[in-house]
Every structure is written in structure tokens, then in C-alpha cells.
């Protein structure tokens, strides 16, 4: 517990105050930024900045040219107040007076000092990198001595600390309960969006920036003798554009052939946006022999409750048609669905005019179930009839044996 002081003792709503170290540390560790308060020539100043907690010390990031950080150089240090707030929800009451918010807030008072030891500063900055992404410190260049000299770090020992929080629902006057107004809580959460690579970046999005998803919505890496499936990423744009530039590859797809690399970037971005919405799980296909990007494929119509999934959005460079790549990719995806996700049904959809695709799906062991009329629009705006195929968990054992046999070298077959 942190000891109460005159500055941390609550004078109202005392039920919302907390002095437990674990509670305060949890809020500080979850938040990415704080507000640093101090005075300059007798006037108040507030500075938003990044922070990281290491043990019982809060470190604040800044520039060596900053006024308060220069003031913290003195032996006496800089008296500061630091506030961190996590807003968890808006509370709507039937009356204006009782509207409120759910939140968790930490306020720390004390004297901050400038960190001058180079090793300590390096350790703090590494901890800050780890906070923005587990593994980020090792996945980026450390500062040079010149950069380290330009970076200021303030150290604030955590000793005078309090937590204030509001949780729960609406507080109402009895007389207001019959009013015909909506009341309740609107939860608020800070959630990461889709990572947006900077221009010229060819490295894939690191795992620590990918959201934690259900296995049904995770593009787990899959590897075979002919093909490797890995999570689709903007870094695959150059290879995917080069491998699938043939118009015949896009002839029966629901997306028009990209005219240039930028078009391929948008095809990938659309797939990743669909993944973020939970509608699709896209993979890129690589040649197991050369490592080059050769195509893409996806799960979609994902329904974990009914344990069903569809395989589609598949396009493969023409040099790899009629090789073991497509057969093995489907075997990997079916194994993922039936054996790892415990699916009971896998579905395919294909253009009724695409007889080559229909024959390929039938060779997998899937059964034709019917035609969905005017099911989707083609890139030219015309309506397409879709042939639907499916494989059930009862069909899977025989299909698996058949596909493995097809992939076995002729010399190894009985």
C-alpha cells in the first residue's frame, strides 16, 4: 500500500480512492501516455508525454531542450504531479446531473530528477520500447550516443500515489426512474487498428502488432513439400503482383486484375480489412522450393459456432497451375479446418462459368450441392451464378487419403 498524505487523501467520494500498489501499477502499465504537471516562474504547465514504470520508479520521456527537464538537472530536482487516466465508459443517466464516466486514474506527486547515467537511460528506453511492443527493442535499432544525448528521461520515485476509479452503472434519483429516457453505460476501449507500413518498408508486420485472435481467425503458418502458407502482409505486394500479372489468373475472380503494384497493395489491404472485421483469414502462398510469392488464398464465411468455413479468394500464378501447389495448399487448409479447428463442414464457391475450377474442386473430394443464382457481381457489374461445393467431416478421412496419394511421387505409390 502507498501511504496516505495530505495530497493524496480524498475529501469526497472516498469509496473511489485506492492506495494499493498493484492497482496503481496496473493502470500505469496499461496506459501509454501521461500528463506531467509542474510550475515555471510560478505559473502552471502541463506536458503530455510517454512513460514507463520500472519497479517503483516512473520514468518520463522528453527532449533535452525541454524547460522542465532542464530544471530537473538541479540537485533539488523538479516538483511534479503526474496524472494517468484510462476512460472505460460513458454513463448516461435520465438526468443531466447524474451523467458520469467510468474511469481509472492514477495521480503521483513527488520530485523528479534527470537521469544522467547512460546505462540507466538505455535500460529505461529499452523498457519503453518493450511497452509499445513486446520484442520491439530487439526489432529496431538502438540509439546512438548522439541520439541518447538528445533524449531526456525523468525519474519519479513512486511514493505519494493514489488511484481513483468509478465502475458500475447509473446512479439515478427515484423520481427520475419513470422518465422515458434511455439510461445505461457506453463502454469505451482503446483498441489497435490495422498496422500501416511506412513507404518503402518490405519487412512483414511483426507478430507483436498483430491482434490476438481466435484460432478460427488466425492465419497460422502452414508448410508442405510444394507450398508454404503464411499470413498475408503488405510486404508481399511486389511478389504477388509479379506472380499474378497474367490476365487469365483473374478471369473468374471477383476482383479485377490490378493494373500496377498499387492495385495489388489495395487488394492486400482489402483482405486485411476484412480480416480485421473477422470476415476473412488471408494467406500468401510461397513456393516451398524457391521461397517466392506465387499466390494467395483465404478462409471466409467463418462460423465457429456452427464449425463451418469456406475456402476461396484463391489466385495462383499461372506457372504453378497443374502442379502440386494447389492440391497441397488445399490439403493444408483442410487439415487446418478439420483436424485443428474441429470444423464439420468446408465450403467452396466458384463461378458457374469456371469449369476448370469446378473440376479442381471435385478432384479434392468435395460434393456439388447446387447453384446459387445471381449470387455475386463480377468486376464488370454482371451477376454471376455460383456453384457451391462442400466437404463434411464424414467425407474428410477418404479425401485426406486421396489427396495425400495424389501428392505422393509416382515412384512411391504402391
From TrEMBL:
InterPro entries, A to Z: Acyl_CoA_acyltransferase, GNAT_dom, Pyridox_Oxase-rel, Split_barrel_FMN-bd
Domain N-acetyltransferase: from-to ranges: 227-394
Keywords: Acyltransferase, Transferase
Domain of life: Bacteria
A single MF term (Gene Ontology): acyltransferase activity
The UniProt record lists the keyword DNA-binding: no
UniProt keyword annotation of Membrane present: no
Enzyme Commission numbers on file: 2.3.1.-
PANTHER family: BLL6696 PROTEIN, N-ACETYLTRANSFERASE DOMAIN-CONTAINING PROTEIN
Protein name per UniProt: Bifunctional pyridoxamine 5'-phosphate oxidase family protein/GNAT family N-acetyltransferase
Amino acid at each position: 500500500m502507498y501511504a496516505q498524505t495530505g495530497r493524496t487523501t480524498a475529501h469526497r467520494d472516498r469509496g473511489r480512492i485506492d492506495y494499493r500498489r498493484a492497482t496503481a501499477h496496473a493502470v500505469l502499465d496499461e496506459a501509454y501516455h501521461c500528463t506531467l504537471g509542474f510550475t515555471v516562474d510560478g505559473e502552471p504547465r502541463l506536458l503530455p508525454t510517454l512513460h514507463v514504470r520500472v519497479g517503483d520508479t516512473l520514468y518520463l520521456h522528453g527532449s533535452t531542450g525541454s524547460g522542465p527537464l532542464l530544471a530537473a538537472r538541479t540537485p533539488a530536482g523538479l516538483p511534479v504531479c503526474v496524472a494517468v487516466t484510462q476512460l472505460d465508459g460513458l454513463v448516461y443517466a435520465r438526468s443531466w446531473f447524474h451523467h458520469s464516466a467510468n474511469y481509472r486514474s492514477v495521480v503521483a506527486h513527488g520530485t523528479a530528477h534527470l537521469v544522467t547515467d547512460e546505462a540507466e537511460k538505455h535500460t529505461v528506453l529499452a523498457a519503453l520500447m518493450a511497452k509499445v511492443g513486446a520484442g520491439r527493442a530487439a526489432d529496431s535499432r538502438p540509439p546512438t550516443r548522439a541520439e541518447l544525448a538528445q533524449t531526456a528521461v525523468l525519474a519519479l520515485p513512486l511514493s505519494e500515489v493514489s488511484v481513483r476509479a468509478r465502475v458500475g452503472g447509473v446512479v439515478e434519483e427515484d423520481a427520475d426512474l419513470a422518465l422515458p429516457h434511455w439510461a445505461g453505460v457506453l463502454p469505451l476501449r482503446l483498441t489497435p487498428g490495422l498496422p500501416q507500413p511506412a513507404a518503402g518498408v518490405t519487412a512483414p508486420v511483426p507478430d507483436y502488432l498483430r491482434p490476438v485472435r481466435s484460432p478460427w481467425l488466425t492465419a497460422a503458418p502452414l508448410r508442405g513439400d510444394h507450398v508454404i502458407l503464411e499470413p498475408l502482409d503488405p510486404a508481399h505486394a511486389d511478389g504477388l503482383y509479379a506472380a499474378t500479372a497474367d490476365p487469365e489468373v483473374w478471369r473468374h475472380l471477383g476482383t479485377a486484375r490490378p493494373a500496377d503494384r498499387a492495385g495489388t497493395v489495395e487488394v492486400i489491404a482489402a483482405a486485411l480489412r476484412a480480416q480485421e472485421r473477422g470476415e476473412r483469414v488471408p494467406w500468401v502462398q510461397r513456393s516451398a522450393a524457391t521461397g517466392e510469392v506465387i499466390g494467395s488464398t483465404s478462409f471466409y464465411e467463418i462460423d465457429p459456432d456452427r464449425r463451418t468455413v469456406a475456402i476461396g479468394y484463391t489466385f495462383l500464378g499461372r506457372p504453378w497451375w497443374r502442379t502440386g501447389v494447389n492440391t497441397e495448399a488445399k490439403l493444408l487448409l483442410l487439415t487446418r479446418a478439420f483436424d485443428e479447428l474441429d470444423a464439420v463442414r468446408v465450403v467452396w464457391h466458384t463461378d458457374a462459368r469456371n469449369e476448370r475450377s469446378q473440376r479442381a474442386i471435385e478432384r479434392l473430394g468435395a460434393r456439388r450441392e447446387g447453384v446459387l443464382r445471381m449470387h455475386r457481381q463480377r468486376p464488370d457489374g454482371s451477376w454471376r451464378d455460383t456453384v457451391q461445393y462442400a466437404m463434411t467431416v464424414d467425407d474428410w478421412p477418404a479425401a485426406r487419403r486421396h489427396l495425400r496419394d495424389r501428392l505422393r511421387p509416382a515412384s512411391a505409390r504402391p
